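Q: What would this chain look like folded?
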Amino acid sequence: MGETTVFEARRIITMDPTRPEATHVAVKDGRIQSVGTASDFEGMPVDQRFAEAVILPGFVEGHAHVMEGTLWKYTYVGAGERRNPAGQKVAGLASIDAVIDRLAQAHRADPGESVLVGWGFDPLHIAGARLTRRDLDRISPERPIVVFHASLHIIVANSRVLELTGFTSETAIAGVVKQEDGAPSGELQGIAPRLRLLRALGWTSWTGDLEPADVTRFAAAAQVQGITTIADLHNDLPASTVDIYRAACTPDLPVRIVPALASASCPPEEGVARIAALRAENTERLKFGLVKIIVDGSIQGFTARLGAPGYHNGAPNGLWYVAPEDLKRIVGIYHAAGVQLHIHTNGDEATDAALDAVACALETAPRADHRHTLQHCQMARPEQLARAKALGLCVNLFSNHLYYWGDVHRDVTIGPERVARMNPAASALRMGIPFSIHSDAPVTPLGPLFVAWCAVNRMSSSGAVLGPEERLSVPQALHAITLGAAYTLHMDTDIGSITPGKQADFVVLADDPLTTPPEALKDIAILATMVGGAIHPAARA
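A: My prediction, written as structure tokens:
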């Protein structure tokens, strides 16, 4: 048994309603022993390294992807500035030419035959300009080149990749976008064409084969933002990936990782067995048990399934990644087996399909405290939220969308009325629906304080306030990125609050989020994290 260490802080925000605040916390053997003030620890030595700082429960990111670690070994070509896992800033790009120039620099630096990969591209942030195979062919018509849209639901490929996949003017696969002359433009939308691309490139996952360094970068990118637990919420989890995760998730890793099995990777009957086998070998750093189902695509990519009146600009409706009737079957099998499901729905028509599937599953096999979670659930209507509450569902809302795509959603995709209730966190709170908020990294950058800022301010990148009625208070937003997120992962008995008996997982902040002006919440510096009592300083640029 180890010794007890008492840490002092200017303020400890516990997220525990029985003792919301404190100034001291005692840690022993990686767990919280007690919480209180100086008088509670008289006569005991006190570690004062954080005495001028503010301690909160470690942030919990309930929806991200390990490809956040994988993609940083490739070339970032997004419009917004980002921080890499080392804490360094990477400038955004404002035009197609700038994207091509950065990719060309990467090609010249390493002119091999491996696939050249760019990521983070979004045409809506550069005046709607679409990237095509002809643009990528300017870099090299011989070397395979692919660029991931920020949403990750769309990939753009050059002519060499289209040749490898066999996509031609004769291809009749939904999602293979064609030019006016009938030839593929290079843009590949949805699952079917991307699966074919995966096989053609010999990859085992969307962004290439997972390597131990990818998991390390994923953890580092999370830790620098104050995250102590993070979900990898969509992974095929082949044996090779599981082995890499097990090797990387040592007691020294600065985060706990929660991978979810992608439902599309195997039949649900096989998935049930795989989850059971994986659960049996869970550790304190690595927890399997979730299954992710993707029902539709992205709103900004026009691949989400929207109910009436559809897309504001008249674009055709998006894609079903899982047909509604098949969704009922898949949900039913996993639900009956006791598996927790996280179901991606962006459009409200997709949310209807998910609600129907869960209702059918519960009717067939009633189950208390299932905590199935609707992920994103961005366009949920009031009656859909009421139904989610009745079905015992959680929601994990994508508040960052309001900043990154809010202006486009207002003007192009869904219009001003629907954007005002997009990601309805205040409604979920009023209705008593367990909820959290997330980044979906690498779709948007990791950063729970920024996610909370988005939910508190609901401000677009142009400064427009979108739906002030759906704003959260700062304490409510902090709950959503700590205990709220832990609840959706079924981990709230172990993390999410500074409560005796729970893991000593903390984030140390330079300033107090409860006294900082709400508009400055995102700017509070992360000084360090603690995971199981081990301190990890946060790297800064």
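The radius of gyration is 23 Å.
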